[in-house]
Amino acid sequence: MNKKIIVTLMLLCLVAAGAFAEGLSPEVAKPLAAGIAVGIACIAGGMAVGKIGAAAMGAMSENAELSGKALPFVGLAEGICLWGFLVALLIIIL
User: Fold this and answer.
1) d(Cα 15, Cα 60) in Å, to the nearest integer?
2) d(CA 59, CA 76)
3) CA dihedral sign, ordered 39, 42, 48, 53
4) Predicted pLDDT at 16
5) DSSP 5-71
């Protein structure tokens, strides 16, 4: 499944690069770039949360005291999506 996501993201980047090479106007290029930034960040964040969440649940099933130590790592993975949103916001504003 990861190979399919990587290939899809690579094709998306190629399409975006081709669109930018043709000389898009800023009214079209900014939302396109912002959408790509948020989309890639959210896909990566979702993959990270899935893997970290599964590992955290496995660790908590063996030792319940690890729940407080595992949750910050899930929050760090969710922060990837927020960084993508901030980049998109800066692209649109500037």
Assistant:
1) 43
2) 18
3) negative
4) 77
5) HHHHHHHHHHHHHHHHHT---HHHHHHHHHHHHHHHHHHHHHHHHHHHHHHHHHHHHH-GGGHHHHH
Fill in the DSSP letter of residue 81.
H
Tens of each residue's pLDDT in the chain, 94 residues: 678 878 887 888 778 777 777 777 878 788 888 888 898 888 889 888 999 989 988 888 898 888 788 888 888 888 888 999 999 999 899 8
Tokens representing 29? 């290029």
- d(CA 11, CA 83) in angstroms, rounded, equals 22
Give the closest residue to 38 by CA, choosing from 2, 84, 86, 89.
Answer: 84
Q: How many CB atoms lie within 10 A of CB 64?
A: 9
What's the one-letter identity of residue 67?
Answer: S
Distance from the Cα of residue 31 to its chain's centroid? 17
